Amino acid sequence: MSGKKKLRIGVIFGGRSGEHEVSLASAASVIRALDPEKYEAVPIGITKDGRWLVGTSAVKMLSEARGCRKRAAECDRGRDVPGSPRNFW
Fold it and tell me: Is the separation of the CB atoms in 71 and 83 below 8 Å?
């Protein structure tokens, strides 16, 4: 998709619900399914106490939920952009 801008997609997950963990798993699936050539995924997390997180804090929330203790770039699917939330999955 050279020369074209990627569409930025906000993926909101988490929250105060009893379904908090399910929401995190769903968000991870959505982010993985987005074509990185067309879309820039922006994770937006909501903690169990209602705080909103973006950027590396939201990425960390997702990584901890899936048991990944590495830096975001190490958990990446091969797109090595250190610390970039849009390339986390």
Answer: yes
